[in-house]
Amino acid sequence: MKLRASHTLSVLSAAACLAFTLAPAHAQKPSATPAPIGVAEEAVVSGKVVEVNPDSKAVLVQGPRGNLVELVAGDEAKNMGNVKKGDIVTLTRGAAVVAGLEPVGSKDTALMEQVERVSHAAEGGKPGVMREITTTITAQITNVDVAKRTVTFRGPRETLRTVKIQDPNIDLASIKKGQMAKIVVKEVVAITVRSPNAG
């Protein structure tokens, strides 16, 4: 018997969809000490539209591993009527980049604030959406790698994360392990649809 995995989610939830598409086959066991999340590199995953339901605004997409994901557009989605069977849906997650990093007082509380800016494809073409996510985190630095220009920090949820520092003006020598810092991380997640014969 052939099993088919189908997940329903909003087209605007591109980050969640990307996470599902790239999810490893094995599940991680919970641990008292969380393992660091790897450095967020750019990731691009494409799938083919195998079925379109115009009434429910649902699109069934077959991923690179043969898995099936059902994308359901919300009321804010545009151009859904232009999606055809055989179209290519591409999910792109840009590498997380530290846009700001500064030490703060040792008594500052770990916290996180997130701002999103969403833009849509122009009217008349294929649907698409891009989310620019800016996250400001006050967290404890657990590791600084000056050579690789990365920092690892423990966020408000006790999760360790490693992020690249691309801005040459950020002086990593002034950031010490164990201190609290305010970190601004920028990420871009996009979902686009194109015809198979499009360039």
Describe this structure in words.
β9 (150-154) and β10 form a beta hairpin. The protein has 1 helix and 11 strands; from the N terminus they run βαββββββββββ. It has one domain (8-24, 38-191). With 199 residues, the protein is mainly beta. Strands 1, 2, 3, 4, 5, 6, 7, 8, 9, 10 and 11 form an 11-stranded mixed beta sheet that branches. The chain is elongated and about 55 Å long. It starts with 7 loop residues before the first strand and ends in a 5-residue tail after the last strand. The chain has one helix at 14-22; strands at residues 8-10, 43-53, 58-62, 68-72, 88-93, 97-103, 111-120, 128-145, 150-154, 160-164, 180-194.
Q: Report the C-alpha radius of gyration, rounded.
A: 20 Å
User: Distance between the terminal alpha carbons, to the nearest Å?
Assistant: 38 Å
Structural class: mainly beta
The largest pleated sheet is described as: 11 strands, mixed
Order of helices and strands: EHEEEEEEEEEE
Overall pLDDT metric: 75
The count of domains is 1
Helix content: under 10%
How many beta strands in the DSSP annotation?
11
Shape: elongated
